[in-house]
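Predict structure. Chain length: 122.
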Amino acid sequence: QLQLVESGGGLVQPGGSLRLSCAAFGFTLDYYAIGWFRQAPGKEREGVSCISRSGGSTVYADSVKGRFTISRDNAKNTVYLQMNSLKPEATAVYSCAARYVCSDADYEYDYWGQGTQVTVSP
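Prediction complete.
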């Protein structure tokens, strides 16, 4: 069974940090670009970041540039999203998704995780 499993979410104060993980089970992440998306209550899902299969190319939403860092460890079949200087507006369910190449369009991704909740609040 092909699965992506996110972890690392939680409650953090503004200005704090979290590191999200996206682990693959049943398939090898080497062949996939991985995107991180988030969806806040009452809002549409938006792309946060994406990393190419090799890890040599990364993209970020303007709202997180300079604060979030995406990386991957193919030996561990895992992709990470380091989130620093978190703001309350980052509160959302964060999900990772796999596709051959990065895309802004969430509907183009082939596999999705179940999501992990991130809450930024005093």
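Summary: The longest strand covers residues 18-25.
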